[in-house]
């Protein structure tokens, strides 16, 4: 697709949506080739009051890169400059660099970039910054914000904001405001990222439970004991069944819940023994340990492909990524099972349990109005429950279009007003992704 500005997007449907069911056709698509292209487009849109929505790879799960009404879609996918500076353990990247490209480039120097969303073979670093993406290894290594040394970004008036590494670092930490801002405050054009020494691999442990709550309680107890494995993922039985069906591997027995854990490389065996004891105390039905790289890769594919596996199992799947404090994780898992029991929908769950994240999937045989209304009703119930348990509406997928109606459950009015003021200082004309993140009542469009 060589042309950089496209105005007939009817057949380019990939650019109408992200990984959700939200969809809209842009009035034009700019495949930016440089920061200069972005500045020119932003100035034109500011002068003509045209909304702009930034887009990376379109793997978002909250509708964030679905173009705002009457708007330009500005893709940063072609900004793929990747400068590795191994001696400083850092990289300077364009926003279009695919997350795994950076991980692979760093590995050649025995370094790594730890935040690894399950989508990391497709997602871009620009999208990761805008969503503050987490990943499988976030339990031990943290999320995107923990690795950002500086950002360069185009503001809604076309001026450049340089933060952190790109501009010393004293004063307000403006870069932090941009992380997780979902393209509503600025379009990120350069990202300075911290790398760390490549950790060795520990042991991979697959554990099954006949009671989902026992699996969830095991997560809580491992956390409470202060054990920090590299990865700790939870899958309920139905999500695991979707994976078995998708992978056609039959790699594990279907039980009520599975935990997939990777211990740290340091003291791997000691950690594995502690984890094993907690699993046994919680009546696990099987426990399998793997160190052989081929076998462990096979197990990790279960988790990496899970979102696709669940999607393939039904006609309509809407996934919400709530998160709760560690102590409330078993209650949340039990609540999801009860929702599944009570509703006409198929509802299953999986997630980065080590961090209290649970992706809850609402599945229906069609996208009829009836099914959509039923899903909306149960999503609202889940949101309220997560907040009641002291949690959050989103562990990592962002607010986007999907959750803006629920924001006042999580934030009080003064906080929402401050967010609104921040938005209007950065973007007084509301041209940057104006219908995302903030609640509709605060919005001018
Ligand atoms: C199978 C699957 C698994 C996933 N697993 C995870 C996971 O484990 N952890 C996780 O956190 N997420 C996960 N996600 C969600 C998604 O991959 C992440 O949110 C990712 O960060 C989005 O990157 P993207 O390049 O696709 O961004 P897009 O979807 O294109 O955009 C996302 C948001 O970022 C904004 N944006 C994009 N580029 C820029 C830019 N240059 N400047 C400013 N704003 C910008 C957009 O406006 C939009 O609001 C998963 C998604 C899928 C489909």
Give a short synopsis of this structure.
With 445 residues, this protein is of the alpha+beta class. The chain has 3 domains: 71 residues, Uridine Diphospho-n-acetylenolpyruvylglucosamine Reductase, domain 2 (2-Layer Sandwich), CATH 3.30.43.10; 116 residues, Uridine Diphospho-n-acetylenolpyruvylglucosamine Reductase, domain 3 (2-Layer Sandwich), CATH 3.30.465; 185 residues, Vanillyl-alcohol Oxidase, Chain A, domain 3 (3-Layer(aba) Sandwich), CATH 3.40.462.10. It is built from 14 helices and 18 strands.
Question: What are its keywords?
Answer:
single chain; 445 residues; alpha+beta; Uridine Diphospho-n-acetylenolpyruvylglucosamine Reductase, domain 2; Uridine Diphospho-n-acetylenolpyruvylglucosamine Reductase, domain 3; Vanillyl-alcohol Oxidase, Chain A, domain 3; 3 domains; 7-stranded antiparallel β-sheet; 5-stranded antiparallel β-sheet; 14 helices; 18 strands; 33% helix; binds flavin-adenine dinucleotide
Descriptive overview:
The protein is α+β, with helices and mostly antiparallel strands and 445 residues long. The protein has 3 domains: 5-75, 2-Layer Sandwich (Uridine Diphospho-n-acetylenolpyruvylglucosamine Reductase, domain 2), CATH 3.30.43.10; 82-197, Uridine Diphospho-n-acetylenolpyruvylglucosamine Reductase, domain 3 (2-Layer Sandwich), CATH 3.30.465.10; 204-388, Vanillyl-alcohol Oxidase, Chain A, domain 3 (3-Layer(aba) Sandwich), CATH 3.40.462.10. The chain contains 14 helices and 18 strands. The strands form 4 sheets. A 7-stranded antiparallel β-sheet has the order 15-12-14-13-17-18-16, sandwiched between helices. Strands 5-6-10-8-9 form a 5-stranded antiparallel β-sheet. It has a 4-stranded mixed β-sheet with strand order 1-2-4-3, with helices on one face. A hairpin with a 4-residue loop joins strand 5 (82-85) and strand 6 (90-93). Helix 6 (212-224) crosses helix 8 and helix 6 runs antiparallel to helix 11 (329-342). It starts with a strand and ends in a 19-residue tail after the last helix. The mean pLDDT is 94. The structure holds flavin-adenine dinucleotide. Residues 18-19, 53-61, 64-65, 76, 95, 117-119, 123-124, 126-128, 130-131, 133-135, 182-183, 187-188, 307-308, 396-397, 400, 433, 436 line the site of flavin-adenine dinucleotide. The site of flavin-adenine dinucleotide (FAD) has 39 residues, from strand 3, helix 3, strand 10 and helix 10.
